[in-house]
Write a sequence for this structure.
């Protein structure tokens, strides 16, 4: 079976939980061939893969969101768009809760539109936007509305109108643009579609937009609703929706995904891969680690603030942030500046490393994210028998405290962006070796029983076989 994996902002350009998940899936299914439809932010990423692709990956189809900046178009064209097509595009722009994506796709693929840039400077588009502003946005300056909406939907138009490989099954690993493209595959080729949600994409975009400086005033609401509309496309088209834990399922239902489509398949690791790891030298200071990309959503700044507080109680402790920092150099530089401002010593950014060479030398691990699904970093750390301090995001509470299982507590879960409580929990573990060992053992046993890679892979093999040949 030929399967098209659609990934946005992850595989194969970026390391991390979702990318590692995709890579494990590809490597574990040599009986299938895969095409990767990779959506990335900037064209400068072209061909810069962080993974050696398995032999069963036959093609990587790349699309870059900044490609719309090269499109010039021409002003004032008239394509005589049918009323139903105009209404479909209007429902997309206006965030219609009941937007019909079948009609939206048909409208966006209509050859009368010409290229995307020309359509978004056409009289047809002007008429659609004018009507929408009269109905819903009469107090918003039209010029600002015109350029905001154009920049909002231009990448979507270009992505939808880009060449899409034919496959036997389309599998998106998020909603958003990736979810729309997998839905388009089903729309065009009448083949089944699977959606896997690690985190809730629309909620994550909402958090980013609320905090952003690049979206002003009432346009924040427009952008937020737009991403919720994109998510509903994937929920509408997907034959099966897979998520990682029950709270995600509840949120998906709240956002309009039919409950009968949803199943839960947790992430999994091979715990035996974390046996016989290199260990800390006898008598070495306490080592506190984080398996994490250095990006804002991981909230490294709060982690650094908590480290500063820990150093007051455990002066000899050292801190090791293990993960790539190239993805957002500006944020990385801000983290370095914060360390310098605090006068904080003994903090190491390792960059992208083989975590198996490092994690065994740690006494405990920390995750301070403001949003997560079911973090693979936590599963890997628990498999290495390390206790954790995490923020209360995603399924961290289930991983560390369990859900009606006999394995016991594997760490502490604390509120998001609360450096004081994070540091207090770290200090508690630093000062109690017996607790560290006991919680590390509890986490290892929970992973071995409930979060195995075999269970994760077998579930997807069964799902693929169930959908094979279905139209």
């Amino acid at each position: 079976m030929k399967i098209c994996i659609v990934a946005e902002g992850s595989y194969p350009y970026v390391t991390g939980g979702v990318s590692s998940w995709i890579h494990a899936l590809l490597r574990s299914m040599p009986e299938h061939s895969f095409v990767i439809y990779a959506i990335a932010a900037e064209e400068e990423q072209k061909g810069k893969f962080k993974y050696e692709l398995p032999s069963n990956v036959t093609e990587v189809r790349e699309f870059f969101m900044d490609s719309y900046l090269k499109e010039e178009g021409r002003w004032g064209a008239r394509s005589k768009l049918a009323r139903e097509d105009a209404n479909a595009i209007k429902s997309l722009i206006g965030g219609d809760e009941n937007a019909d994506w079948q009609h939206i796709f048909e409208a966006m693929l209509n050859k009368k539109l010409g290229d995307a840039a020309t359509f978004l400077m056409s009289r047809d588009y002007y008429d659609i936007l004018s009507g929408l502003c009269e109905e819903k946005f009469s107090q918003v300056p039209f010029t600002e509305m015109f350029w905001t909406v154009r920049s909002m939907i231009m990448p979507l138009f270009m992505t939808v109108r880009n060449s899409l490989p034919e496959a036997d099954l389309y599998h998106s690993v998020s909603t958003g643009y990736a979810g729309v493209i997998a839905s388009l595959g089903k729309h065009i080729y009448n083949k089944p579609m699977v959606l896997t949600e690690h985190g809730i994409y629309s909620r994550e975009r909402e958090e980013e937009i609320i905090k952003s400086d690049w979206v002003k005033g009432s346009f924040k609401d427009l952008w937020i609703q737009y991403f919720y509309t994109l998510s509903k496309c994937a929920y509408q088209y997907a034959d099966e929706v897979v998520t990682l834990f029950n709270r995600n399922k509840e949120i998906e239902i709240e956002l309009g995904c039919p409950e009968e489509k949803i199943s839960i398949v947790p992430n999994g690791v091979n715990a035996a891969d974390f046996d016989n790891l290199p260990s800390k030298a006898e008598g070495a200071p306490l080592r506190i680690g984080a398996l994490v990309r250095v990006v804002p959503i991981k909230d490294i700044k709060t982690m650094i603030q908590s480290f500063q507080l820990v150093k007051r109680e455990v002066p000899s402790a050292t801190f090791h942030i293990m993960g790539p920092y190239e993805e957002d150099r500006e944020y990385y530089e801000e983290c370095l500046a914060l360390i310098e401002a605090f006068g904080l010593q003994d903090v190491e950014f390792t960059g992208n490393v083989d975590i198996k060479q490092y994690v065994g030398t740690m006494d405990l691990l920390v995750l301070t994210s403001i949003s997560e699904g079911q973090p693979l970093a936590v599963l890997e750390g628990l498999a290495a028998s390390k206790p954790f301090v995490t923020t209360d995001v995603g399924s961290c509470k289930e991983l560390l405290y369990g859900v009606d299982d006999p394995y016991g507590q594997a760490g502490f879960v604390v509120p998001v962006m609360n450096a004081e409580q994070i540091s207090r929990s770290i200090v508690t573990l630093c000062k109690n070796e017996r607790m560290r060992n006991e919680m590390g053992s509890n986490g290892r046993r929970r992973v071995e029983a409930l979060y195995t890679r075999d269970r994760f892979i077998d579930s997807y093999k069964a799902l693929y076989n169930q959908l094979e040949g279905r139209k």
